[in-house]
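We modelled the chain as a single entity of 621 amino acids. Its sequence is:
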Amino acid sequence: LTKTSFHRCQTLDYRNGYAVIRRPAVGIGGDQLQSHQPSQAELDEMANKAPVLTYGQPKHPPPPDFIPAHVAFDKKVLKFEAYFQEEVPMSMEEHYRIRQVKIYYYLEDDSMSVMEPIVENSGIPQGKLIKRQRLAKNDVGDHYHWKDLNRGINITIYGKTFRLVDCDRFTQDFLESQGIELNPPEKMALDPYIELRKQPLRKYVTPSDFDQLKQFLTFDKQVLRFYAIWDDTDSMFGECRTYVIHYYLMDDTVEIREVHERNDGRDPFPLLMNRQRMPKVLVKDAKNFPQCVLEISDQEVLEWYTAKDFIVGKTLTILGRTFFIYDCDPFTRQYYKEKFGIIDLPRIDVSKKEPPPVKQELPPYNGYGLVEDSIQNCFALIPKPPRKDIVKMLINDNKVLRYLAALESPIAEDKERRFIFSYFLATDMISIFEPPVRNSGIIGGKYLGRTRIIKPNSTADSPVYYSPSDFYIGAVIDVFGHRFTILDTDEYVLKYMESNAAQYTQEALASIQSHTQKQEASAPVVENEQARAEFSPQEMEALIETLQKQLKDHPGKDSIYEEFHKHDTQRTGCVDKELFFKICKSLDIPVDDYLVKELIKMCSHGDSKIDYCSFIRIFSN
């Protein structure tokens, strides 16, 4: 009643010269259209929605993962014991028979199958009665489900009624877990005709104990098996051979079979003696009986071999051969236990133990080369080099420990001689170099080539070689009868000992540290004395030749001359000491090495200049 505006929104318009319809935005009098208004469900949701300011809207948990039935119930089968009754027409002995079956229910696809155990000589087609499929429960089209199965119920499958009497443990646990109350198990029904067959037959005539037919029927297919050996090693070209003796209880016959092994070099004859009765004691006149022409009958034999003559551990003479029985099979043991009361028939070990291997004695070490190289001549006609530790050689490549040593000798001239020990970590070899001393009367140079040195207390069979832990200040090294005392080391040895302190004793570490402290205290005086030393050209050439072999694989040998030549602007052939050591450090030249230090001293001119032309000769060919 209070509405005063009734105008309508324009619905016609022109666009690109054509008359088109325009959708109204508002209703009559400017009212809002129903299509733009929220629905009642949206209004209720907005009315009941509680604002959450602290943690926001609650997050719903994700839905559980869907697991299909063929994955969840894979290889899970319910098993029921059942039977069904089958009529037998036109038979006077039985009117019906009970057939026991097993019903399997496959949970993965709700299929079922019926299996009947196969009975030998039953004359009935048995096995899989109903193959795996979904079985109809009624005429409507419903199928059997595991909820329909239980103990003590009847189910009808294709017109046959099956009685479920029991199930296995898995089936019981599964059905109980699903809330199904199982009926108590029932006894399996028995077939009356089969039970009738199990009853003993009526005996009208008492059989004789000595009836051969009874023995044949009683012991048919029962054979005693013995394992024996024939040891003929006492004769020329004789050997020990293995045989199997069969004793047939049905007619007291004996058979001897040979045991052939692969590649034994014998013809594969299966039988040594064919199946026959074996005489044990002959009559006196039977010695002249022509056995090669006529067969032995009961008149020539007083006693035959029987089962009681074949016992484990007994020796038998058959056809002139002596057989020793050392074992039998389980059936034979059971037979002797029931028949003769012999309980224990242990197996006798007849295997001949092989003689102990002869220990290979190595000849004494002749002193030439390494012990490992000399031993290879004893192992093969064409000796092979001993195996080397490649990993150790790669890790310790170009790593050398150098020591300064003095020779212990009663000769006065030898006491002043000094030697440089080089220990190569890659191969554990040691080389000795004697720096030439001017006007000493002794020719310096290589004193000992690279070789491994054996400790004096070790033997040639198990040699013990010198290791880095044996070298320290004050240590005495015995080199083929010559004793050397370690006097000094280079700086790389000190760094190596600090990084591998576990290999050294406390005494060795303490000796190196104390020697280093004394050397630092007297360093200025020693440097002044060495600066005044003079060296001959022969000494320099010998030292350069030694360093060329040591630094032949140095990575910076191709660019060392360019580096020094670039800084020598006046082309004098000399550079400052500070610049010289800076260039050597950039090219990774081992200036801490004892031999390198000696060469730097020889190339020094005064206190500030070094002749780099003479120094770089160790990197040239």
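As a brief sanity check on the tokenised model: The first strand starts at residue 12 and ends at 15. The chain has 17 helices and 25 strands.
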